[in-house]
Amino acid sequence: MKKIIDKTRKRLKRKASIRKKISGTPERPRLTIYKSNSHTYVQAIDDLAGATLAAASNLEKEHRDIGNKVAALEKLGGLIAERLKAKNVTAVVFDRNGYRYHGKVKAIADGARKAGISL
Asked: Taking the chain, what is the end-to-end CA distance rounded to the nearest angstrom?
Protein backbone atom coordinates (compact mmCIF):
# COMPACT_ATOMS: atom_id res chain seq x y z
CA MET A 1 0.00 0.00 0.00
CA LYS A 2 2.83 2.37 0.85
CA LYS A 3 4.35 1.88 -2.63
CA ILE A 4 1.12 3.06 -4.31
CA ILE A 5 0.93 6.14 -2.08
CA ASP A 6 4.58 6.98 -2.79
CA LYS A 7 4.08 6.59 -6.58
CA THR A 8 1.09 8.94 -6.48
CA ARG A 9 2.91 11.44 -4.28
CA LYS A 10 5.91 11.48 -6.64
CA ARG A 11 3.65 12.00 -9.69
CA LEU A 12 1.86 14.89 -7.99
CA LYS A 13 5.21 16.46 -7.12
CA ARG A 14 6.32 16.20 -10.77
CA LYS A 15 2.94 17.61 -11.84
CA ALA A 16 3.38 20.67 -9.60
CA SER A 17 6.87 21.23 -10.95
CA ILE A 18 5.60 21.11 -14.54
CA ARG A 19 2.64 23.39 -13.84
CA LYS A 20 4.93 26.11 -12.47
CA LYS A 21 6.50 26.40 -15.92
CA ILE A 22 3.56 26.09 -18.33
CA SER A 23 0.23 27.82 -18.70
CA GLY A 24 -2.53 27.82 -21.30
CA THR A 25 -3.80 30.86 -23.18
CA PRO A 26 -6.84 31.25 -25.46
CA GLU A 27 -4.58 31.05 -28.54
CA ARG A 28 -2.49 28.15 -27.20
CA PRO A 29 -4.37 26.21 -24.50
CA ARG A 30 -2.84 23.61 -22.21
CA LEU A 31 -3.57 20.03 -23.34
CA THR A 32 -3.59 17.89 -20.21
CA ILE A 33 -4.03 14.14 -19.73
CA TYR A 34 -5.34 12.06 -16.86
CA LYS A 35 -5.08 8.28 -16.84
CA SER A 36 -7.08 6.01 -14.58
CA ASN A 37 -6.87 2.23 -14.69
CA SER A 38 -9.84 1.93 -17.02
CA HIS A 39 -10.20 5.29 -18.80
CA THR A 40 -8.15 8.16 -20.19
CA TYR A 41 -9.24 11.81 -20.23
CA VAL A 42 -7.84 14.71 -22.30
CA GLN A 43 -8.71 18.39 -21.84
CA ALA A 44 -7.66 21.64 -23.48
CA ILE A 45 -7.67 24.35 -20.82
CA ASP A 46 -7.39 28.14 -21.05
CA ASP A 47 -5.72 28.98 -17.72
CA LEU A 48 -6.21 32.73 -18.05
CA ALA A 49 -10.00 32.38 -18.16
CA GLY A 50 -10.06 29.20 -16.08
CA ALA A 51 -12.16 27.42 -18.70
CA THR A 52 -12.04 24.12 -20.53
CA LEU A 53 -12.17 24.70 -24.29
CA ALA A 54 -12.51 21.05 -25.35
CA ALA A 55 -12.48 17.64 -23.73
CA ALA A 56 -12.47 14.02 -24.85
CA SER A 57 -12.33 10.66 -23.12
CA ASN A 58 -12.92 7.03 -23.87
CA LEU A 59 -15.72 7.11 -21.30
CA GLU A 60 -18.06 9.02 -23.66
CA LYS A 61 -20.91 6.87 -24.92
CA GLU A 62 -20.09 7.19 -28.63
CA HIS A 63 -16.34 6.62 -28.08
CA ARG A 64 -16.30 3.67 -25.69
CA ASP A 65 -14.95 1.49 -28.50
CA ILE A 66 -11.62 3.37 -28.33
CA GLY A 67 -10.46 1.34 -25.32
CA ASN A 68 -7.54 2.09 -23.04
CA LYS A 69 -4.66 0.47 -24.92
CA VAL A 70 -1.74 2.37 -26.48
CA ALA A 71 -2.74 1.64 -30.09
CA ALA A 72 -6.32 2.82 -29.56
CA LEU A 73 -5.47 6.02 -27.69
CA GLU A 74 -4.03 7.60 -30.83
CA LYS A 75 -7.69 7.94 -31.92
CA LEU A 76 -8.40 9.87 -28.71
CA GLY A 77 -5.64 12.34 -29.63
CA GLY A 78 -7.21 12.73 -33.06
CA LEU A 79 -10.63 13.28 -31.48
CA ILE A 80 -9.43 16.12 -29.23
CA ALA A 81 -7.58 17.62 -32.20
CA GLU A 82 -10.77 17.69 -34.28
CA ARG A 83 -12.67 19.37 -31.44
CA LEU A 84 -9.92 21.98 -31.09
CA LYS A 85 -9.84 22.64 -34.84
CA ALA A 86 -13.59 23.30 -34.70
CA LYS A 87 -12.78 26.10 -32.23
CA ASN A 88 -9.97 27.44 -34.49
CA VAL A 89 -7.14 26.28 -32.22
CA THR A 90 -4.11 24.92 -34.06
CA ALA A 91 -1.42 24.92 -31.36
CA VAL A 92 -1.38 23.72 -27.75
CA VAL A 93 1.02 23.48 -24.82
CA PHE A 94 1.34 19.81 -23.88
CA ASP A 95 0.97 18.99 -20.17
CA ARG A 96 1.86 15.37 -19.45
CA ASN A 97 0.50 15.80 -15.90
CA GLY A 98 3.48 14.14 -14.20
CA TYR A 99 3.37 11.00 -16.33
CA ARG A 100 6.35 9.84 -18.39
CA TYR A 101 6.21 10.80 -22.07
CA HIS A 102 5.92 7.17 -23.07
CA GLY A 103 3.20 4.72 -24.07
CA LYS A 104 -0.31 6.10 -23.66
CA VAL A 105 0.76 9.72 -23.21
CA LYS A 106 2.94 9.60 -26.32
CA ALA A 107 0.17 7.90 -28.33
CA ILE A 108 -2.28 10.72 -27.52
CA ALA A 109 0.30 13.37 -28.47
CA ASP A 110 1.11 11.59 -31.73
CA GLY A 111 -2.59 11.27 -32.58
CA ALA A 112 -3.09 15.01 -32.04
CA ARG A 113 -0.05 15.80 -34.20
CA LYS A 114 -1.29 13.59 -37.01
CA ALA A 115 -4.63 15.38 -36.92
CA GLY A 116 -2.89 18.73 -37.41
CA ILE A 117 -2.38 20.18 -33.95
CA SER A 118 1.03 21.65 -33.18
CA LEU A 119 2.38 20.58 -29.77
From this structure: 36
Q: Residues 62-106: pLDDT tens digits? A: 888 888 899 889 999 999 999 999 999 999 999 999 999 999 999
For residues 70 and 104, is the Cβ–Cβ distance under 8 A?
yes
8 A C-beta contact, residue 109 and residue 119: yes
CB 47 within 8 A of CB 30: yes
Domains of the chain: 2-114 (3.30.420.100)
| Helix residue ranges, H only, the chain | 2-21, 70-86, 104-114
SS3 27: coil
CA distance 12 to 33: 13
Question: What's this model's pTM, rounded to 2 decimal places?
Answer: 0.89
